[in-house]
C-alpha cells in the first residue's frame, strides 16, 4: 500500500437521490485481435443501505463495471468510452486522479475474491489494518494497532488480540476473507463493492462470510454491490439484482420478483441450474453453450445462439431493456410470455 499523505475528503453535494448512479457506461479493451466491448451501456443505481447483486458468467462485464466504478480499470488496455458514474452526486469521471484516490480510500472500498493475493504476505494483518488509519487518519502506531484489534473483533475473528501480529498465511481462507472485509470497513465507507467475495471458500464458510457482510451492511447502512456468478449465494442478502450478459444488462428486478418469475430466458436458465435441497438427484438444467467473445458479439439478441426461446426476430433485432412493471426490466422481446407463465 502506498504511503500517501492524508487528504481531506471533499463534502458531497447535499441530498443525492442515490449513493451510486451509473448511466450508460461503455468500456472497451484494445487487444491484438481488435476492440473488445466489455461493457455496453450499463446503467444501475445503489441507494444508501441497499444491496445490489450483479450477476453474470465470466466475461459478462460485471467485474469490469465494478473496476470502472472503483477507478481501478487496467488502463490501457481498458478505456471508459462513454457514460457517467455519479457517487454521492459527484461525477467520478471528472475527478482528478488524486481526488479519485481519496474517494476510493475513504468513501468507497472493494473486497476481492482472493484475499491471499490482496494482502501483503510479509506484513502482519494488524499492521495492514492499522495502516489504513495511519495513512488516511494520521493515527499513531499504538492507536492504529488497537483499532486493528477492534476491527478484527467486528468481523468476528476469535482471539483477535492474540492474533493481531499473525501473518495472512496463518489464517484460514474464511478468516482471511474476514480480514479483507475489516480492511474495507476500516474507514467506514458509504459503499462497498465485493467482487466474488466467497467464491474461493467452501459452502459453509461462504454462508458465514455472506451473513457477516449482510450484518455489517445493515449496521453501517452502507450501499453494497455484490458481484457474483452464483444466484444461489445472493438470494437472502440482496434487495435487487441486475443480470449481465455480453456486456449488457439483460434483466433487472427486485430480488423476490426475479426468483419468483424471471423475465429473461438467461435468468431462467441460471435459476434452473441452482441445486435444490428438496429435489435431490435431479438433473440440473444449466444454460447450454458458452458466452460469446466480446470481440464478436452476435447480432440481434446476443443471447440468441444459446436461447431455447429464440425466433427469427431475435437474430436480427437487438432487444432494448423493456420496462416490465413492478420495478423490473428485461432485454427479451418475449418477456411478457415469461411473466404470463407465472
Ligand atoms: Fe431469447 Fe429472443 Fe428473448 Fe433473446 S430476445 S432472450 S433470443 S427469446
Spatial strand order of the main sheet: 6-7-8-3-9-10-12-11
| Mean pLDDT over all positions | 88
- The arrangement of helices and strands along the chain is EEEHEEHEHHHHHEHEHEEHHHEEH
Helical proportion?
Answer: 25-40%
What Rg, in angstroms, do the CA atoms define? 21 Å
Q: Based on CA inertia axes, which overall geometry fits? A: globular
Please tally the helical runs, counting DSSP H or I stretches of 4 or more residues.
13
Helices and strands in order:
Blueprint: E1 20-31, E2 34-46, E3 51-55, H1 62-70, E4 78-87, E5 90-91, H2 97-106, E6 108-111, H3 115-118, H4 125-137, H5 141-154, H6 160-163, H7 173-185, E7 191-195, H8 203-220, E8 223-228, H9 231-234, E9 240-245, E10 248-254, H10 255-260, H11 265-272, H12 312-316, E11 322-325, E12 328-330, H13 335-340
Parallel strand pairs: 3-8, 3-9, 6-7, 7-8
Antiparallel strand pairs: 1-2, 1-4, 4-5, 9-10, 10-12, 11-12
What labels describe this entry?
4-stranded antiparallel sheet; membrane; binds iron/sulfur cluster; 12 strands; 33% helix; nucleotide-binding; alpha/beta; cell membrane; 8-stranded mixed sheet; 13 helices; ABC_transporter-like_CS; 342 residues
Description:
The protein has 342 residues and is of the alpha/beta class. 33% of the residues lie in helices and 23% in strands. The strands form 2 sheets. Strands 6-7-8-3-9-10-12-11 form an 8-stranded mixed beta sheet, with helices on both faces. A 4-stranded antiparallel beta sheet has the order 2-1-4-5, with helices on one face. Helix 4 (125-137) crosses helix 5, helix 5 crosses helix 7 (173-185) and helix 7 packs parallel to helix 8 (203-220). Residues 264-265, 301, 303-304, 307, 309-310, 314, 319, 332-334 line the site of iron/sulfur cluster (SF4).
Amino acid at each position: 500500500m502506498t504511503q500517501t499523505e492524508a487528504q481531506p475528503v471533499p463534502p458531497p453535494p447535499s441530498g443525492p437521490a442515490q449513493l451510486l448512479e451509473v448511466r450508460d457506461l461503455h468500456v472497451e479493451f484494445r487487444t491484438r485481435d481488435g476492440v473488445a466491448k466489455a461493457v455496453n451501456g450499463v446503467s444501475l443505481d445503489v441507494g444508501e443501505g441497499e444491496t445490489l447483486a450483479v450477476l453474470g458468467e465470466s466475461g459478462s462485464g460485471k467485474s469490469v463495471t465494478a473496476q470502472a466504478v472503483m477507478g481501478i480499470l487496467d488502463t490501457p488496455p481498458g478505456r471508459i468510452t462513454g457514460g457517467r458514474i455519479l457517487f454521492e452526486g459527484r461525477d467520478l469521471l471528472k475527478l482528478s486522479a488524486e481526488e479519485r484516490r481519496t474517494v476510493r480510500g475513504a468513501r468507497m472500498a472493494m473486497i476481492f475474491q482472493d484475499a491471499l493475493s490482496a494482502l501483503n504476505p510479509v506484513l502482519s494483518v494488524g499492521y495492514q489494518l492499522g495502516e489504513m488509519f495511519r495513512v488516511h487518519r494520521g493515527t499513531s502506531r499504538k492507536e492504529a494497532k488497537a483499532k486493528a484489534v477492534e476491527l478484527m473483533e467486528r468481523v468476528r475473528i476469535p482471539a483477535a488480540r492474540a492474533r493481531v501480529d499473525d501473518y495472512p498465511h496463518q489464517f484460514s481462507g474464511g478468516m482471511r476473507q474476514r480480514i479483507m472485509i475489516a480492511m474495507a470497513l476500516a474507514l467506514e465507507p458509504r459503499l462497498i463493492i465485493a467482487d466474488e467475495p466467497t467464491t474461493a471458500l467452501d459452502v459453509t464458510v461462504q454462508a458465514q462470510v455472506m451473513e457477516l457482510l449482510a450484518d455489517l451492511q445493515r449496521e453501517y447502512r452502507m450501499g453494497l454491490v455484490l458481484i457474483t456468478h452464483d444466484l444461489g449465494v445472493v438470494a437472502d442478502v440482496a434487495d435487487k439484482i441486475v443480470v449481465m450478459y455480453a456486456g449488457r444488462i439483460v434483466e433487472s428486478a427486485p430480488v423476490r420478483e426475479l426468483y419468483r418469475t424471471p423475465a429473461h430466458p438467461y435468468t431462467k436458465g441460471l435459476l434452473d441450474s441452482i441445486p435444490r435441497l428438496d429435489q435431490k438427484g435431479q438433473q440440473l438444467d444449466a444454460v447450454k453453450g458458452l458466452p460469446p467473445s466480446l470481440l464478436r458479439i452476435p447480432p440481434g439478441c446476443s443471447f440468441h445462439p444459446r436461447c431455447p426461446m429464440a425466433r427469427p426476430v431475435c437474430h436480427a433485432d437487438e432487444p432494448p431493456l423493456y420496462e416490465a412493471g413492478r420495478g423490473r426490466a428485461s432485454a427479451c422481446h418475449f418477456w411478457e410470455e415469461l411473466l404470463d407463465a407465472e
